[in-house]
Amino acid sequence: MKTIDILLKTYDGHVHPLINDLxxxxxxxxxxxxxxxxGMNYTSHPLFQKMSSYSRLRHSIGTAMIIYHFTHDETMMLxxxxxxxxxxxxxxxxxxxxxxxxxxxSTEEKxxxxxxxxxxxxxxxxxxxxxxxxxxxxxxxxxxxxxxxKLSADRLEYSLSNMVNYGFARIDEAIEYYKDLVISxxxxxxxEIVFQSEDIAALFTRHVLQCSSVYSSDxxxxxxxxxxxIVKDAIAQHVITVDDLYHDSEDACIRKLCRDETIxxxxxxxxxxxxxxxxxxxxxxxxxxxxxxxWIDPFxxxxxxxxxxxxxxxxxxxxxxxxxxxxxxxxEN
Length: 333
Hints:
3-stranded antiparallel β-sheet; two-stranded antiparallel ribbon
């Protein structure tokens, strides 16, 4: 068993039978072949070379298990299970293609359509008397998703998995973080997943900020923009279609890309990408790519946000939030 998969057992002890049943659907089976790392796992960057595979389905199952653990609400659990069902090939790279690289939400638009056209999922929903409108938008459930920098099941799952997968935290540390969490009211009077221990909340936040530095790193932004350009070229040259992105696995889409010699060469060049460096604006081949900033400022039960309780953590969060990414970067020779 992969190290990060040990977390699944931690989330709720076992996978709910309804999750197992729905994972037989074509739409969910497809995202088992879409990696969470947005194409970075195909590059030669040392960090991504050493990681375990981490699929959108595995993340979605984990998110659903976390939701059920804290709420025992099957409908909310399914909204969590389905929240990434519309993820296209290379995930948020397609947001870059759509010009949505700072919000990274454009790829969620097809969720209802994909659910509606999957007979297995619709049959299960009908048998359970669950309306499509109750599960096609997990944003309506604050425990499943909420605004940054609050902690939600979605944000919690990929944070714990990534901090272990990147090698920033040990599996026992991630498990300790999870076991300290409960549901309680935040400063706004709404329910949130919160920590009981201030010390554990601080350790968790430090590891999350390490992950945040990866998500918005020069390499990630540059490589995702390069891959978006390759996909754009492939669509323009009719090598693939936009629909392929939402119905193919990544392996299937890559095979289509490589059928065209020009696109294949672009793809092979992308896979050799190892590192990037800042450079003067206007340098040939350079790119300026703004960043979506992802961070978490968890709530400590009965006390407040960790940034209010720990001056060092507040300084680290502020440094990350205020960083200016509007400078040029280029592939290192």
